[in-house]
């Protein structure tokens, strides 16, 4: 993967495509995909995660790839001390406007601006699938780095049969240049465990809107 130089930092080129694409679709995404889009199982995963963190690690939580922040707010409503991080400045702007009581920062899951071992939890809710698979070990290593011993990860993601998607438009016709990688659950489980985290639970859910592809939620502990 080619690298681009951005300011002081050399970052993988795919990040620029993800950031600009989500800037383009952010307003439509916020309108069309509010937290109410989740089915009862999706909401239950967030609630269960909050209960586990409060009971076992009780530290701050980062919602990584938080988008417009609706689910960050839902997690806060469950009692978590949670902040959001997203690569798209427009997403962060919308999140701050909708939830001024919470903290949202522009940043990447490939290099989180967070101290080592400081978090009780990391949530990545349908945000890792734009990362090329060869970069995912570094992302999961980053999740582990920021988690305190005993801290928890909740990963929600699309599943697929190693599918590579290159859509040219999304969310009602907005042009996008990001790529998406839909991996089998076993690959994702291996990535989580390869980073040294222990999977404690997994739920597979058929997409509530149909279409064949399913969702998965992985709970893991550091
Ligand atoms: C499909 S949206 C999901 C938003 C939110 N988690 C939700 O479920 O409503 C994916 C989000 O992940 C963010 N994202 C993708 N790759 C990222 C990265 N490397 N670092 C931070 N955010 C990223 C995108 O900018 C986008 O806002």
SSE layout and pairing:
Blueprint: E1 3-6, E2 9-12, H1 14-32, H2 40-56, E3 61-64, H3 70-77, E4 82-86, H4 89-98, E5 104-106, E6 119-125, H5 136-146, E7 147-158, E8 163-165, E9 169-170, E10 174-175, E11 180-182, H6 185-194, E12 198-206, E13 214-221
Parallel strand pairs: 3-4, 3-6, 4-5, 6-7
Antiparallel strand pairs: 1-2, 7-13, 8-11, 9-10, 12-13
Helix pairs in contact: 1-4
The chain binds S-adenosylmethionine.
Structural overview:
With 222 residues, the protein is an alpha/beta fold. The protein has a single domain (40-221), classed as Vaccinia Virus protein VP39 (Rossmann fold). Helix content is 34%, strand content 30%. The chain is built from six helices and 13 strands. Strands 5-4-3-6-7-13-12 form a seven-stranded mixed sheet, sandwiched between helices. Helix 1 (14-32) runs parallel beside helix 4 (89-98). It is globular, with a radius of gyration of 16 Å. The two termini are 29 Å apart. Bound molecules: S-adenosylmethionine. S-adenosylmethionine (SAM) binds next to helix 1 and strand 4. S-adenosylmethionine binds next to helix 1 and strand 4. One of its GO terms (molecular function) is methyltransferase activity. This is Methyltransferase domain-containing protein. InterPro entries: Methyltransf_25, SAM-dependent_MTases_sf. Keywords: Methyltransferase, S-adenosyl-L-methionine, Transferase. Residues 61-151 form the Methyltransferase domain.
């Amino acid at each position: 993967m080619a690298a681009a130089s951005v300011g002081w930092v050399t970052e993988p080129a795919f990040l620029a495509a993800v950031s600009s694409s989500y800037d383009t679709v952010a307003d439509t995404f916020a309108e069309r995909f509010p937290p109410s889009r989740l089915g009862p199982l999706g909401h239950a995963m967030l609630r269960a995660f909050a209960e586990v963190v409060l009971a076992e690690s009780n530290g701050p939580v980062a919602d990584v790839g938080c988008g417009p922040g609706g689910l960050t707010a839902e997690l806060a409503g469950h009692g978590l001390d949670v902040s959001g991080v997203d690569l798209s400045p427009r997403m962060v702007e919308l999140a701050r406007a909708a939830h001024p009581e919470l903290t949202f920062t522009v940043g990447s899951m490939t290099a989180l601006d967070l101290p080592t071992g400081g978090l009780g939890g990391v949530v990545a809710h349908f945000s890792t699938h734009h990362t090329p698979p060869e970069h995912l070990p570094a992302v999961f290593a980053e999740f582990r780095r920021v988690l305190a011993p005993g801290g928890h990860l909740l990963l929600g993601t699309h599943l697929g049969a190693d599918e590579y998607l290159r859509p040219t438009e999304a969310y009602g016709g907005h042009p996008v240049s990001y790529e998406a990688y839909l991996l089998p659950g076993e690959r994702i489980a291996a990535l989580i465990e390869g980073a040294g985290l222990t999977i404690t639970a997994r739920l597979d859910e058929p997409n509530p809107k149909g279409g064949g592809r399913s969702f998965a939620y992985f709970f893991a502990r550091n």
